[in-house]
Structures are given as C-alpha cells and as structure tokens.
Amino acid sequence: MRDRIDTFYMADLYGELQLSPKAERRSWHAPVPGLLLVTIAALAALWLSDHYGAPQILLGLLLGFALNFASADERLRPGLDMASQTLLRFGIVLLGLRVTFGEIAALGLIPFLGLVAIMAAVIGTGMVAARCARLDLRFGLLAGGATAICGVSAALALWSVIGSKRVSQEGFAITVLGVTLASALALATYPALAAMLGLTDTQAGFLVGASIHDVAQAIGGGFAVSDKAGEVATVVKLSRVTLLVPLLLLVALFLGRQGGGNRFSLRQGVPWFIAAFVAVVALNSFVQIPAAVGQAGASAAGFFLLLAVTAAAIKADLSGILSHGWKAFVPVAASTLTAFALALSVAWAL
C-alpha cells in the first residue's frame, strides 16, 4: 500500500518528507561525527588532487568507497545523510553563481538549438541503452542526463529529483564513476582529435564544450586547443549548464505521469533548491555581484558537491555495485559516444 501511495509524488523528496515516519528528535550535534568523517575525506581528496592532478570528485568517490565500512555505525548516519542530502541541495543552489542568461544569448540561436538537440538525443540514448542492457529506465535517465548537461553536478541534481527509492545509492555511484572517467578520457583525447580533423577554433571549441561532461575539463580542453577555442567552449559549456533547470522540470513531470497519471503542479513538482538555483542565476545575470563573493560561492558549491559524492560513496552498498557488472556502464558509454558524434556533426556545420 505504501508503494502505491509513493507513486503519487513528483519526486521522492516529497514522498520522504510527507510519508516517512516522524524522525526521532535528535540533538543539534547528532550530525557532527558523520560530517567530520566526510569533511576529512573530502579534504584528503582535495590534497591528493592538488598534488597528483587527479579529479577531486573521483578521489572523493574512491575515498568514500574505502570508508564504506563506517556506514555500519549508526552514530555516523545523521551526518552522512546531511552531507548527501542537505548540503547537496545547497551546493546546487550555489552553482547558479557560475551561469548567467547573457552567456546563453552570446552563443547564438542556431548553435543553441543544435546544442538542445544534442542534449535531447544524448538523454534519449542513455534511456534506450539502459533498456537494451536490461537496466531500469530511470537509471538510464540519470546517466543520460548527467552526460548531456554537466557530469557529476547534473547527476547530483537529477538524483535529488529522481530520489534514492527509484535509483539506488549504488546506481548513483556507478553513474558518477562512469561520467568522471569518461570526462577525463575525453579531455585527454578530444583536443588532439580536433587538431587531427583540422577543425577551426570555433568548431573545436563547440566540439569540446558540447561533448565533455565536466565544466572545468570542458573549458580546459577548449583552451588546450587555443584561446579562441577556449572562449567558445566556455560559452557552450555554460549554456549546457543552464539546460539543467528545464531538464529537472521535465524529469519531475515524467516521474509524475509515470507514478500515476496525476496532474503536474509546480508546487509539487519543483523542489525548493531548483527554484533557488533559478533565482541565483537571475541574480547573477542582472546584479553585479562582487568577484570575491562569486568566487567564494562557486568554491563552496564545489566543496558541498564533493562532500555529497563522498557521503554517497560511504553509504553505498559495494556488493550491490559489483553485482551490476559491466552492463551498468553501458548508458554512460553510449551517451558519451552519441554526444561526441553529434557535437562533431554540428561543429562541422558551423
């Protein structure tokens, strides 16, 4: 009966808030032990990244897996939950400081429409690949959406809307691992491929910005080609990031119809942190925010997301991840190849 009731909610966030048993009253310091563990692991990931150059998110994920045994201690659960849920949502809100509406307008209508078509095709590929690999359709939606928009950040935002009842901690961890590795491989190969194919700076910038998942790696890949290509890659990549909000709204609508055909409502379908994200983007677009504030907010967003990924890895069931096998990476792989092929096609047309 409970499963039937859960389906009427646009996202698990609301089902958990309204249907779960009343949580026991905890003291204010209950989350402290778990938060300390996650913070220490995240700081270790930052140190290793600075000294060895590996992606912070990948290192946080691996350190979280190494600390997976700690999830059995109930004293750590409140802090782990806070890091993987509350801090995650605040991190998503602060991501709005990286984007402005002006950056979308600077891209131009035709390239932007091409970018939207690429993103739609990539998400569809992820869902089709999941079905072909006999995986859950919503797992394919998570993998395709993360690949189409901005990698780990999009995976975190989508997972917040989809919910852990629809895609497990293990499925989320697999998606994060897949998009992180795919993005690192793309950074190492796409700039060289652009040079081999004789693409112009504008074409190379569009290819890199439209197909590499991670924001920093997409921008870095563009500047690895040339300054002009880096500028184009930056605009294209940030335009992809702005597509996160409409994607989340469409996902909420999709899950609502799938759950029971009930009417979509903004009050029920839009989590507070998505509305706040849009508000921050608007503020960043129309108000001159001091550079120091913007940089501090963007850094805080990155650290909160690192904490969320690390906490999710600590809470994940490693045996469940291993049981998925290689097929679990099929949606990310198929989506990545589709993104590259379509981005190259549009780049040639520019």
UniProtKB/TrEMBL annotation:
Membrane topology: Multi-pass membrane protein
GO cellular component, one term: plasma membrane
Keywords associated with the record: Cell membrane, Membrane, Transmembrane, Transmembrane helix
The protein's name in its UniProt record: Putative sulfate exporter family transporter
Domain of life, per lineage: Bacteria
Keyword Cell membrane found: yes
Residues that span the membrane, as ranges: 28-47, 53-70, 107-129, 141-162, 174-199, 206-226, 238-257, 269-287, 293-314, 326-349
Annotated compartments: Cell membrane
Family membership noted in the UniProt record: Belongs to the UPF0324 family.
Native organism: Erythrobacter aureus
InterPro entries given in the database record: UPF0324_pro
